[in-house]
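Researcher: Please translate sequence to structure tokens.
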Amino acid sequence: MKAAEVQEAEAAAAPAEAVPATPLERVKHALESETLDKDVLTAALAELEAEMGRLQSAASEAGDRAKSLEASVASAKDQYLRLNADFDNFRRRTREESAALTDSVRGDVIKEMLPIVDNFELARTQVKAETEAEQKINNSYQGLYKQMVDLMRSLGVEAVPTTGTPFDPNIHDAIMREPSNSHPDGTVLQEFRKGFAIGGKLIRPAMVKVSYTEEGPAASSEE
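Model: Translation complete:
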């Protein structure tokens, strides 16, 4: 075999030089090559520029998607907060309406009981047990009255304050007035019928007697 043929065979048998995989590696390879080929370098730079353009475009698209995702997340969060607030308001209104309905029903029941309470109150002040049998009846009567009072308290019913307190037209019904120099003007002197309230809401005003001051003879003569 001739020498030239041997050299060609050896060159063919030699492993091919690995081609750089990325444009940047190809540019680096072209710059480091012993025989700098301008065309190869130009082509590699063009590929690198194109790759940079693709990367910038991908980054821009990723940024747009991120902004869109942030907007979607913000919108979803805003909707969640509004729905949560609406639900809290609904739950609060439901509680308030339920409480108002309960108080209304209780008030209606108590109004039906008030005539019975009035009769108990009247009888309690008038009954005078003189015999042992009458005392037993009175004790049973008072026990029943106490049970009714305890029941009303358990329902949240409160008696309206009267004797010794200032007259309040919102809770008192003045059916009598009496002159008094020992009490401030407009003081409740006596209770004729109890008033009741439930949950701060008046069920029935109390019937009362109210004081008023009179000018004495000395004050009249001075005028």
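Researcher: Any highlights?
Model: Residues 8 and 189 are 135 Å apart (CA to CA).
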